[in-house]
Design brief:
The protein is an alpha+beta fold. It is built from 14 helices and 21 strands. Helix 4 runs antiparallel to helix 5. The structure holds heme C (HEC) (5 copies).
């Protein structure tokens, strides 16, 4: 072939590829979907309930059905996020984007900012049946920031293959529903600063359960023998729609197994005992805590009780890693950036955690553009050390305890207790979030004994 011709063909190909690529990038722009559909393009969950009542009842008890209406969501969205975008208009897109995951229909209908939950609009349907069952694909390779593709209509998607028939709608089987990316489209989130502020599906992908093909559905939609529709077939492996997670104390309980042991069993006052706590994550398919990690707090408390009932709190031994100060409870203030949306100048912040000083905390600190800790994930410019407990990971902590001279001789009981809160307490109190959201829950505990001689 003529050399000049082949150069022309070659460069045309490159140009075409570049053009197609930029088109694709544009197509992936989240802003594109905003306001492209109408509420009436979607059926209500009550409509599906007519034939799928069991799934409807399960779903309506899960957070999925309250993603827009739940008290803390409403408070954070209106008091902090919407107010923040009013002060800083460059945040408007990110704040509209909250709805891309919490109430996708409102986002697609362009109903932004949606009415308050008490007004009873269709935004309240939150993550409804139609939202999930109209997802026909995910844009790109990584699922995040609501990059699902929703196409309203008579075709409902699911993964079961076979001769199913519904008098009401068409059924198309796709492997998307047995995989985890459909979940990742909302359970992975990047902040406007390009920081991963939610990465549940990515944590899963890097962990042991992905290799074993134990999907999100296995633990959050466990299968059982039941009918999937009133007039349908009984399957031995129907997928429940429980979606219970951190708001179910029964799901959280026992997530971590705890054991504590001393290095010596017999001692005297003034001597040193080193206690070792082993914390094994036996239950989660991602890290613990996961998801809204800016809000969640898990901590390990160790104390000793002597024969006279005196309690001695034992602080954790430092390991010396970078950023460790954020993983040990202390009496400092944080979350000053809330002052901006709240309209408080030079807001001094609230206490960082309010758990016993010296306790080990399993978390990632989120930092605002000024390097201060934040619970506003859309205002997160960087992350600190990731000191959470990975799936099937075991963390060990030591506690060096110098027995006080006034300790009562006899049996000394040493206890390890792990606690969990959905939201750091001082933030919950300050923003008047109902207490159930920051009530402490026991994850697990264990104790052992030492004998103290006079
Ligand atoms: C008039 C009854 C009826 C209504 C209303 C109805 N469905 Fe169905 N649906 C069925 C039947 C019957 C099946 C087939 C069940 C079987 O496999 O035996 C089915 C199957 C499905 C499946 C696939 C099941 C599988 O095994 O893969 C999905 C997904 C689904 N429906 C979603 C919905 C959604 C979402 C709505 C509300 C918009 C809805 N359905 C409304 C009767 C109904
Ligand atoms: C968060 C997304 C999500 C929501 C919300 C949701 N589903 Fe599903 N549903 C799924 C997934 C994923 C599967 C398939 C699981 C699999 O195949 O492993 C499924 C499966 C089903 C099936 C087939 C079950 C089976 O075992 O064959 C039916 C029927 C169904 N859903 C109906 C509903 C109805 C009705 C609602 C609302 C009350 C609803 N879904 C809400 C994600 C969702
Ligand atoms: C359209 C977005 C969307 C999709 C798709 C989605 N989720 Fe969710 N999910 C949410 C939102 C938003 C919440 C938070 C509700 C709240 O607390 O405000 C949530 C909550 C949950 C919870 C409850 C967490 C708790 O704190 O109790 C579980 C469990 C869960 N999702 C699992 C899944 C699984 C498994 C899948 C895939 C089959 C999935 N989700 C798909 C948006 C989604
Ligand atoms: C091996 C079982 C298992 C697998 C697999 C699993 N989870 Fe979980 N998940 C749990 C347990 C147990 C909890 C409760 C403890 C906790 O809050 O982390 C939980 C909690 C959650 C929560 C609430 C976390 C919070 O702090 O609000 C969400 C959301 C969630 N899972 C989503 C997912 C998604 C999405 C996947 C798949 C990418 C998945 N899970 C895979 C067991 C599992
Ligand atoms: C990419 C999807 C996505 C985006 C965007 C998103 N969220 Fe969420 N949000 C979730 C999921 C999924 C959960 C549940 C995670 C978990 O349970 O740990 C959640 C949890 C929350 C919670 C905690 C709920 C609880 O009861 O503990 C609040 C509050 C919240 N989001 C508010 C917001 C606000 C405000 C915005 C916008 C600035 C926003 N979200 C943007 C997906 C998203």
């Amino acid at each position: 072939m003529n050399k000049a011709l082949s150069i022309i063909i070659f460069s045309t190909l490159i140009l075409l590829t570049l053009f197609a690529f930029s088109f694709k990038l544009h197509g992936e722009d989240e802003g594109d979907k905003k306001g492209t559909l109408k509420y009436k393009d979607f059926q209500t969950p009550e409509y599906c309930q007519g034939c799928h009542n069991d799934f409807y009842q399960q779903w309506s008890q899960a957070m999925m059905s309250q993603a827009y209406t739940h008290h803390w969501d409403e408070i954070e969205y209106f008091k902090l996020a919407v107010a923040h975008a009013e002060v800083k208009p460059e945040l408007k897109d990110a704040v509209d984007g909250c709805n891309g995951c919490h109430t996708p229909m409102a986002y697609l209908a362009g109903d932004l900012t949606p009415p308050r939950p008490e007004e009873g609009s269709r935004a309240n349907e939150s993550v409804s049946c139609e939202v999930c069952h109209l997802i026909k694909g995910i844009e790109g390779d990584t699922a995040y920031n609501f990059n699902w593709i929703i196409e309203p209509g008579q075709t409902k998607y699911s993964s079961r293959k076979g001769e199913m028939e519904s008098p009401n709608h068409k059924i198309v089987a796709t492997d998307l529903y047995s995989g985890t990316k459909i979940c990742g489209s909302c359970h992975n989130e990047k902040s406007p600063f390009g920081v991963w502020v939610k990465s549940t599906q990515l944590e899963w992908e890097e962990g042991p359960y992905a290799d074993a093909d134990v999907t999100c559905q296995e633990c959050h939609m466990p299968d059982t023998e039941m009918k999937t529709a009133k007039m349908g077939t009984t399957y031995p492996d129907s997928r429940t729609h429980l979606f219970n997670g951190a708001h179910d104390p029964g799901k959280v309980r026992g997530t971590i197994e705890l054991r504590i042991q001393p290095d010596i069993r017999e001692t005297v006052p003034g001597e040193v005992v080193v206690l070792t706590v082993t914390a094994f994550n036996q239950k989660t398919g991602h890290k613990f805590p996961t998801g809204s990690v800016e809000d969640r707090i898990v901590w390990l408390h160790v104390e000793a009780e002597d024969e006279a009932g005196n309690i001695y709190h034992i602080p954790v031994d430092k390991k010396g890693f970078e950023g460790e100060e954020y993983t040990i409870a202390s009496d400092v203030l944080a979350y000053q950036d809330m002052g901006v949306p709240l309209g408080i100048e030079n807001f001094e912040g609230v206490r960082r955690e309010d758990v016993p000083i010296g306790d080990r905390i399993f978390r990632i600190p989120y930092f605002d553009p000024e390097g201060r800790m934040t619970i506003m994930q859309w205002n997160t410019a960087s992350l600190g050390v990731d000191y959470r407990i990975g799936p099937r990971e075991t963390k060990t902590e030591t506690y060096t305890f110098e027995l006080p001279f006034e300790i009562e001789p006899g049996k000394l009981k040493v206890k390890a207790e792990m606690y969990y809160r959905l939201l750091v307490k001082p933030v919950g109190e300050y923003l008047e979030v109902p207490e159930e959201e920051y009530q402490e829950q026991l994850v697990n505990n264990h104790s052992t004994e030492i004998t103290v001689y006079p």
